[in-house]
Write a structure and sequence with these properties.
alpha+beta, two-stranded antiparallel ribbon, 8 strands, single chain, about 35% helix, two-stranded antiparallel sheet, about 170 residues, elongated
C-alpha cells in the first residue's frame, strides 16, 4: 500500500525550444482519439516520464505538456485524463485531454473500485441508489437501505430460530 504522505511536487517550468523539440520527438498523434501517445519512458503505472536535461528532475510527461501548453497546474489539483474528450490513456500527453481536478474527483472518475462504485445507480439486488434509499458511511461509501433492512430481518429471523431451537433442546 502506498504512503499517505504526499510526495514533494516537482517544480515544472515551460520548456526551452530545445527541450520542446526533444519532447515533441517522443510523441506520436493517434488520429482517431486525438491522443498524443508518449513514446519515451513509460513507468509501471502507465504514465510517461520526461527528463528535461541538466539540473532537472524526471517529470511526468503529461504534467510537463500541460504546464508548457496551458499554464501552471492549480495548487491542490491533479491532472485527469478526461474520457469525455476521448482520452483514458495514462500515456497521453495531449494538453486538451487533461483537466485539473481535486484528487477525490480524479479517483471517482477512474477505473478503480472507488470510481466504479461511485458511478453505480443500483445495488446488486437492483434497488435504485438515490435519495432516502442511500445510507452514507463515515468513509464516503454508500449502502442500500432496502438491503440493510432485508439483511437485518434475516438476522432477526435466524436469531429467533436459534432461540426457539434452544428452548426445544432445554425441554
Amino acid at each position: 500500500m502506498g504512503s499517505l504522505t504526499p510526495r514533494r511536487p516537482v517544480e515544472i517550468s515551460p520548456m526551452t525550444p530545445e527541450q520542446l523539440d526533444r519532447f515533441m520527438s517522443m510523441i506520436i498523434p493517434e488520429p482517431n482519439s486525438g491522443c498524443w501517445i508518449w513514446l519515451g519512458y513509460v513507468g509501471p503505472r502507465g504514465y510517461g516520464s520526461f527528463y528535461p536535461g541538466v539540473g532537472g528532475r524526471m517529470q511526468r510527461a503529461h504534467r510537463t505538456s500541460y504546464v508548457h501548453f496551458v499554464g501552471p497546474i492549480p495548487e491542490g489539483k491533479v491532472l485527469d485524463h478526461v474520457r469525455a474528450r476521448g482520452c483514458g490513456l495514462c500515456c497521453c500527453v495531449n494538453p486538451d485531454h487533461l483537466e485539473p481536478v481535486s484528487s477525490p474527483e480524479n479517483i471517482r472518475r477512474g477505473n478503480g473500485y472507488a470510481g466504479l462504485n461511485a458511478r453505480k445507480t443500483a445495488c446488486i439486488r437492483g434497488h435504485v441508489l438515490v435519495g432516502e434509499n442511500v445510507k452514507h458511511d463515515r468513509r464516503g461509501g454508500r449502502e442500500c437501505r432496502m438491503c440493510i433492512s432485508l439483511r437485518n430481518k434475516a438476522v432477526r429471523e435466524l436469531r429467533r430460530a436459534a432461540r426457539m431451537s434452544q428452548k426445544e433442546a432445554n425441554k
